[in-house]
């Protein structure tokens, strides 16, 4: 049975469906646990389209969004998700925090812990920083992106988008193209999509391809056109200019020539292939506006919508034990 | 004052292993037979009596850890604060171990370890320096490295080098591979090591210098050293237990105690290290003692400092290699005592009459568990936390005096 056909939520009760205290990454999650989170998110998609979007299950819960790295859309998405569930949401920006004064990450974690947060959402520029905090605090910790490591809610929202648009994840040929080396989005997506039995191809110039990536059950390509043959989904990554130091690619113009997704290039994929991008996009670099704005094929705005639903589901599930939800003791 | 050790299991890198007695007169070994001696007799009841360990390339003076680990002499790396690049500082460092420990300063090969200007090697040698080193880093400029090797040869000093191409390893905290990819850590190819080794061996061959690579950790690196030795190049190399026992998988869960320099390698490279140990390519087993406090280790992996405490665990892990039949006991003490002494130009490390009575008594079977919270070292950052080991130092003598 393909992993995506698995519906354990119907047969597993309470915490058995998701036994983890934190969500630090996709690594360590079983396929049925990923599916459980997607199923949970599904209900919020429709709910968020209603006029009355509010729910009160997180009333009295304090959610701290501790963002040590700049972010607009992810922070906003987590903030909206928490508020729609009734949580008291507090945002902590690194620029305003004592981190700038030399406080260590663990000291910051202990401070947040002492303030009795009920759930902490962390974004940090160093791989592993979220795990470090999760080991030190008493409440659930949600990874909103750590270094080059993982961005699990992005992978979940991408998987939800694919499942809704394609009907299934198993068996889909999914091409992930761009700066795979520096991308936490790529890592989490490789883990999630292969766990759900998709065929995943990663494409990048060899200067931006991580070593031994083939051991993560994906197939690496340097030729974008070859990788696109028969693709059901094309997932573009942002070219992270701030991490390039000018040495990974000769120029953005040349990058676009080899790895830019244009209407012509997209013809190598299936006619109904879905185009995705985690944003923000560098139009004319990794993706042309014609492709990005083609509503028949582009799911980019839908990904943003799924993001809120996925984050609502994760906040709900991770706080169930503390809230004494039946079956989650 | 004389000492007579009886019923000892004598282990000597030169004369091998045998049961017998050893006599110390003053601060020297007087005899390795059951000769008559005045003074105290110590019945070892079959325990091992071996040369005191000469730890080549420690980064901190950590007397408690050295005492626990049976280390009597320490080759101190120049990466101190201030850097060992001045005769006065070298002289002071040499005094710091007294009375219970020999500190043999390894001077900076270039001023401030900056890799640009030659240091005053001869003057520092007069002040007590026993070798010169590039420290934690690689000298990028091949012209400077050539001058370092040539000038050190003139002074009769061995150059102790760090072997990683710094341009390839810049910003990296791990070795490229599946683990680094999964963890999203900045990584450098293992090739950085053989690249550096190949250059430095070529320069050593040309200058006729003596070169010791403090740590070699890759299959390709060992092969280059192996071939150079066959050609008669005066090159030696060392390793620490971490690279013999652990592969990069130990970094999983972002365990900063496994953040080392050079970083942990693949399982294939670890197996190559064991093979190089067995075939004699590796000359020195050292602790790489580099204790780091929580302020340097309780950080995200990439932000943490590389290094681990190693003095406490060096002997027990070395005995583990003997138990696993990678080494014989006398060869272990060649790696721990005789060979590092030779790199430093010291006439010690053997159970031979006339040598300094730097000795350790070991119960090789006593079990204990490495516990990061209960180590003698200044900081308990060991990648071996929780590992059960066997072998404890019972007594330690420097110059015939127990400390």
Automatic annotation (TrEMBL), chain A:
<dbReference type="InterPro" id="IPR006131">
    <property type="entry name" value="Asp_carbamoyltransf_Asp/Orn-bd"/>
</dbReference>
<feature type="domain" description="Aspartate/ornithine carbamoyltransferase carbamoyl-P binding">
    <location>
        <begin position="21"/>
        <end position="163"/>
    </location>
</feature>
<comment type="pathway">
    <text>Pyrimidine metabolism; UMP biosynthesis via de novo pathway; (S)-dihydroorotate from bicarbonate: step 2/3.</text>
</comment>
<feature type="binding site">
    <location>
        <position position="123"/>
    </location>
    <ligand>
        <name>carbamoyl phosphate</name>
    </ligand>
</feature>
<protein>
    <recommendedName>
        <fullName>Aspartate carbamoyltransferase</fullName>
        <ecNumber>2.1.3.2</ecNumber>
    </recommendedName>
</protein>
<dbReference type="InterPro" id="IPR006132">
    <property type="entry name" value="Asp/Orn_carbamoyltranf_P-bd"/>
</dbReference>
<feature type="binding site">
    <location>
        <position position="74"/>
    </location>
    <ligand>
        <name>carbamoyl phosphate</name>
    </ligand>
</feature>
<comment type="subunit">
    <text>Heterododecamer (2C3:3R2) of six catalytic PyrB chains organized as two trimers (C3), and six regulatory PyrI chains organized as three dimers (R2).</text>
</comment>
<feature type="binding site">
    <location>
        <position position="101"/>
    </location>
    <ligand>
        <name>L-aspartate</name>
    </ligand>
</feature>
<feature type="binding site">
    <location>
        <position position="151"/>
    </location>
    <ligand>
        <name>carbamoyl phosphate</name>
    </ligand>
</feature>
<feature type="binding site">
    <location>
        <position position="279"/>
    </location>
    <ligand>
        <name>carbamoyl phosphate</name>
    </ligand>
</feature>
<dbReference type="InterPro" id="IPR036901">
    <property type="entry name" value="Asp/Orn_carbamoylTrfase_sf"/>
</dbReference>
<feature type="binding site">
    <location>
        <position position="73"/>
    </location>
    <ligand>
        <name>carbamoyl phosphate</name>
    </ligand>
</feature>
<comment type="function">
    <text>Catalyzes the condensation of carbamoyl phosphate and aspartate to form carbamoyl aspartate and inorganic phosphate, the committed step in the de novo pyrimidine nucleotide biosynthesis pathway.</text>
</comment>
<keyword id="KW-0808">Transferase</keyword>
<dbReference type="InterPro" id="IPR006130">
    <property type="entry name" value="Asp/Orn_carbamoylTrfase"/>
</dbReference>
<feature type="binding site">
    <location>
        <position position="154"/>
    </location>
    <ligand>
        <name>carbamoyl phosphate</name>
    </ligand>
</feature>
<comment type="similarity">
    <text>Belongs to the aspartate/ornithine carbamoyltransferase superfamily. ATCase family.</text>
</comment>
<feature type="domain" description="Aspartate/ornithine carbamoyltransferase Asp/Orn-binding">
    <location>
        <begin position="171"/>
        <end position="317"/>
    </location>
</feature>
<dbReference type="GO" id="GO:0004070">
    <property type="term" value="F:aspartate carbamoyltransferase activity"/>
</dbReference>
<dbReference type="Pfam" id="PF00185">
    <property type="entry name" value="OTCace"/>
</dbReference>
<dbReference type="Pfam" id="PF02729">
    <property type="entry name" value="OTCace_N"/>
</dbReference>
Automatic annotation (TrEMBL), chain B:
<dbReference type="InterPro" id="IPR004722">
    <property type="entry name" value="DHOase"/>
</dbReference>
<protein>
    <submittedName>
        <fullName>Amidohydrolase family protein</fullName>
    </submittedName>
</protein>
<dbReference type="InterPro" id="IPR011059">
    <property type="entry name" value="Metal-dep_hydrolase_composite"/>
</dbReference>
<dbReference type="InterPro" id="IPR006680">
    <property type="entry name" value="Amidohydro-rel"/>
</dbReference>
<dbReference type="InterPro" id="IPR032466">
    <property type="entry name" value="Metal_Hydrolase"/>
</dbReference>
<feature type="domain" description="Amidohydrolase-related">
    <location>
        <begin position="144"/>
        <end position="400"/>
    </location>
</feature>
<keyword id="KW-0665">Pyrimidine biosynthesis</keyword>
<dbReference type="InterPro" id="IPR050138">
    <property type="entry name" value="DHOase/Allantoinase_Hydrolase"/>
</dbReference>
<dbReference type="Pfam" id="PF01979">
    <property type="entry name" value="Amidohydro_1"/>
</dbReference>
